[in-house]
Amino acid sequence: MHRKSPHGGRDRISTKAKLADELVVLGNVLVRARERAGLKQSEVAARLALPASYLSKVENGTRRLDVIEFIRIAQAMDSDPAEIIRELRKELRK
Questions:
Q1: Which residues contact residue 8 at a Cβ distance below 8 angstroms, ignoring those fewer than 6 apart?
Q2: Closest Cα partner for 34 from 48, 49, 20?
Q3: Residue boundaries of the structural domains of the chain
Q4: Is there a contact between 76 and 47 (Cβ–Cβ < 8 Å)?
């Protein structure tokens, strides 16, 4: 049985809040991958046909990504998504 919060749900922690630290780590890993590729944030955003603010939010850890978005970003940076995931896993273990 699902119990209702006595505060109307206000005491629930959003998934985004729970993952805040991890999203920052992911953003940092993506920044390093982009810099290794020698690309500016605006160049990657242009390759994605998205505003630079989208990529900025991802890199700052304020926007969550689904797996398809993640793969598209990696491909736009000419990077291997699996390699970025390996780096992310290493950073999250620290």
A1: none
A2: 48
A3: 17-93
A4: yes
Task: State pTM to two decimals.
Answer: 0.80
Query: What would the two tokens of residue 35 be?
Result: 């810099």
pLDDT in tens, 7-48: 555 555 555 567 789 999 999 999 999 999 999 999 999 999
Count of C-beta atoms within a 10 Å radius of residue 29: 20
Select from 78, 81, 55, 58 the least CA-distant residue to 68: 81
Retrieve residue 36's tokens: 């290794």
Candidates 32, 29, 36, 34; CA nearest to 45 is: 34
CATH placement of domain 17-93: 1.10.260.40
